[in-house]
């Protein structure tokens, strides 16, 4: 059956082996064989146990790391370096923002490099900061803000860049639960408003079900696709009603089971974090 | 109130030491040891006349020329060497060797090549004081955070932008620490280069006073050098506070 829309991202037979650091050392096979496609405008979550090579996968897709084998295509073109139409939000917001520049300068820097004029830069950074509820923080330095606010600045930087595909690497792993819920809703809101394709990596099963339209479950290292689950929850999501939906619980259980199975089948000693009761 | 308190702290100990010195030299008969009053008189008589233009200004000009040259060469080469791993590995042993050469031995050599000129003195100052700046810049560039590098790459920052907005500021704390070390080395080399091959400058003047047994004048020359070193360090602190405002703020947040 043909795809309803042409895939924006194609990952085919991706393999990544880190060479041995020393002559006598062991090389590490981070990703064995990954194949999936992402259609235009989808919000896909990628989950897997810690150490499943999620960050390696993202770095390959982002063009920051050359794959050992396999095909990577974005909008029909092979990925050979960081693509212009892609923005990345990193997990370590504190290290991804430049502490010597104000929030506004951080948001505008990629635009400056892209040759966007000063007036338009201001306009776009202002709009992006308004979109993440940080309209008044432009003159501040990143380290003067809380962790959640810093990650919102990083999201604003991505939004102002106007990507067609947004990559997020466990962006909320280091913020508290309250902030995390707010940021999850922010991602859903921006995704709907901007119509971008979002690839959201997380180790949190609840988060993946709540956010995604689809969840790709990765196995333990060496990584393959363990399962590909369609999240058939209503498009309007809400922290209270969605999370108490019986279907939410079913999906969460299914994915949790898959991750457990992944752990057993690869025989690795990686542990899956236990899920708290709903 | 706070300003007055810090001003008090600044002058209290020097004032006490001068008082002790003054008491100790009340019955002084040795011509080698000056009295506070004698030194002050000698200081103003010696340095605020012809010698201001003949010796003090040329010395300070050489000092600043040397420091500026060391910063330009050190930061420039440091950015280049730090950016390329093979270049760094290739040059590191060589740099360690050059660094190990005591810079004063270059004075006779450069005196032969460049003559008794300002260029010779500035070259000596640059050669001696460039190392902390160069090696710190290399290390600062090398240690640039990996996530920041990935960020710069994924947002496709241009090469000049990466240098100006990532590498240089990221290395700035290390570079400033290197410059701080270089300042005192530069001052030492300024004096040494003037003591041997020179016809002007503070080092030249001090040697001349010593040979003519103009002991108070000689002491006053040492005082001038101390004051220049102090002024240099104060100016540096002001600049550093501005350049590294973000760094100090960040560290304060991280400590809290």
UniProtKB/TrEMBL annotation, chain A:
Residues 9-245 form the ABC transporter domain. It comes from the Bacteria. InterPro entries: AAA+_ATPase (IPR003593), ABC_transporter-like_ATP-bd (IPR003439), ABC_transporter-like_CS (IPR017871), ABC_transporter_ATP-bind (IPR050166), P-loop_NTPase (IPR027417). The keyword Nucleotide-binding applies. It holds the Pfam family ABC_tran. This is NitT/TauT family transport system ATP-binding protein. Keywords: ATP-binding, Nucleotide-binding, Transport. The keyword Iron does not apply. SUPFAM superfamilies: P-loop containing nucleoside triphosphate hydrolases. It comes from Microbacterium saccharophilum. One of its GO terms (molecular function) is ATP binding. PANTHER family: ALIPHATIC SULFONATES IMPORT ATP-BINDING PROTEIN SSUB, TAURINE IMPORT ATP-BINDING PROTEIN-RELATED.
UniProtKB/TrEMBL annotation, chain B:
The keyword Transmembrane applies. This is ABC-type nitrate/sulfonate/bicarbonate transport system, permease component. It holds the Pfam family BPD_transp_1. It is a multi-pass membrane protein. Gene3D superfamilies: MetI-like. It comes from the Bacteria. Residues 56-240 form the ABC transmembrane type-1 domain. CDD domains: TM_PBP2 (cd06261). The chain crosses the membrane at residues 7-24, 60-82, 94-116, 122-141, 185-207, 219-239. GO terms for biological process: transmembrane transport. It comes from Microbacterium saccharophilum. One of its GO terms (cellular component) is plasma membrane. It is found in: Cell membrane. Its main location: membrane.
């Amino acid at each position: 059956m043909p795809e309803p829309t042409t895939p924006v991202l194609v990952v085919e037979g991706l393999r990544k082996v880190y060479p041995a650091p020393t002559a006598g050392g062991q090389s590490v096979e981070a990703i064995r064989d990954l194949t999936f496609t992402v259609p235009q405008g989808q919000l896909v979550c990628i989950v897997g146990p810690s150490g499943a090579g999620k960050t390696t996968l993202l770095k390959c897709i982002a063009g920051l790391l050359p794959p050992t084998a396999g095909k990577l295509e974005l909008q029909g073109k092979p990925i050979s370096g960081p693509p212009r139409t892609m923005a990345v939000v990193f997990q370590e917001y504190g290290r991804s923002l430049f502490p010597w520049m104000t929030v506004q300068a951080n948001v505008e820097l990629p635009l400056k490099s892209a040759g966007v004029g000063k007036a338009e830069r201001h306009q776009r950074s202002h709009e992006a900061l308004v979109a993440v509820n940080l309209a008044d923080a432009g003159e501040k330095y990143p380290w003067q803000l809380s962790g959640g606010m810093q990650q919102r600045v990083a999201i604003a930087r991505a939004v102002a860049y106007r990507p067609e595909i947004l990559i997020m690497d466990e962006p909320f792993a280091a913020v508290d639960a309250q902030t995390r819920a707010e940021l999850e809703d922010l991602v859903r809101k921006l995704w709907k408003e901007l119509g971008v394709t979002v690839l959201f990596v997380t180790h949190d099963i609840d988060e993946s079900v709540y956010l995604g339209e689809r969840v790709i479950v990765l196995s333990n290292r060496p990584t393959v696709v363990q399962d590909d689950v369609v999240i058939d929850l209503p498009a309007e999501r809400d922290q209270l009603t969605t999370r108490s939906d019986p279907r939410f619980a079913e999906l969460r259980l299914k994915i949790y089971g898959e991750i457990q199975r992944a752990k057993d089948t690869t025989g690795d000693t990686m542990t899956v974090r236990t899920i708290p009761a709903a | 109130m706070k300003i007055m308190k810090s001003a008090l702290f600044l002058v209290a100990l020097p004032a006490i030491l001068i008082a002790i010195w003054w008491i100790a030299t009340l019955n002084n008969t040795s011509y080698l040891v000056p009295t506070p009053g004698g030194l002050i008189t000698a200081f103003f008589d010696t340095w605020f006349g012809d010698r201001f233009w003949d010796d003090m200004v040329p010395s300070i000009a050489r000092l600043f020329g040397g420091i500026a040259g060391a910063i330009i060469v050190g930061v420039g080469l440091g950015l280049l060497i730090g950016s390329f791993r093979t270049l760094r590995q290739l040059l590191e042993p060589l740099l360690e060797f050059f660094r190990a050469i005591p810079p004063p031995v270059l004075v006779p050599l450069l005196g032969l090549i460049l003559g008794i000129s300002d260029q010779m003195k500035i070259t000596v100052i640059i050669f001696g004081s460039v190392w902390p700046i160069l090696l710190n810049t290399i290390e600062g560039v090398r240690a640039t955070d990996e996530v920041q590098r990935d960020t710069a790459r994924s947002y496709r920052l241009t090469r000049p932008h990466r240098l100006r907005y990532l590498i240089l500021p990221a290395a700035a704390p290390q570079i400033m620490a290197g410059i701080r070390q270089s300042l005192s080395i530069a001052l030492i080399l300024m004096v040494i280069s003037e003591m041997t091959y020179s016809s002007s400058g503070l080092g030249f003047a001090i040697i001349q006073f010593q040979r003519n047994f103009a002991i108070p004048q000689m002491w006053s020359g040492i005082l001038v050098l101390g004051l220049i070193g102090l002024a240099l360090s104060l100016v540096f602190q002001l600049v550093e506070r501005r350049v590294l405002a973000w760094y100090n703020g960040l560290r304060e947040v991280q400590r809290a």
